[in-house]
# Entry
Amino acid sequence: MMLSWICHRNLFHIGSEYDHAVEDIMDNLIKHTSESPVLDYYIEDTHLAETYDGQDITLYGHGVCTSTLPQQDCHDCIEYANSKMFKECTHGEGAQIQLMDCQLR
# Structure
């Protein structure tokens, strides 16, 4: 059940370096959030920073599940949150989604 979401208005271009960096971060969040002992995983990627409007940027991601959620359920929740995020915030430069048992940003 989706409780809330928020999307950044600025959009990134499909196939851009930024697009690939976002995909990498989301893949890492899906894989590692449920593997974290506390079901809470944070990633900062400075290696994939690109020039944007004359400024270097760094991408951040965070996935967290309710601490009582079984590992597989956490994985499934984060994976579902990712799919809902891309549906609701298609190519937004930033997004956050809160489900009943997990949150992704």
User: Anything to note?
Assistant: The chain has two helices and seven strands.
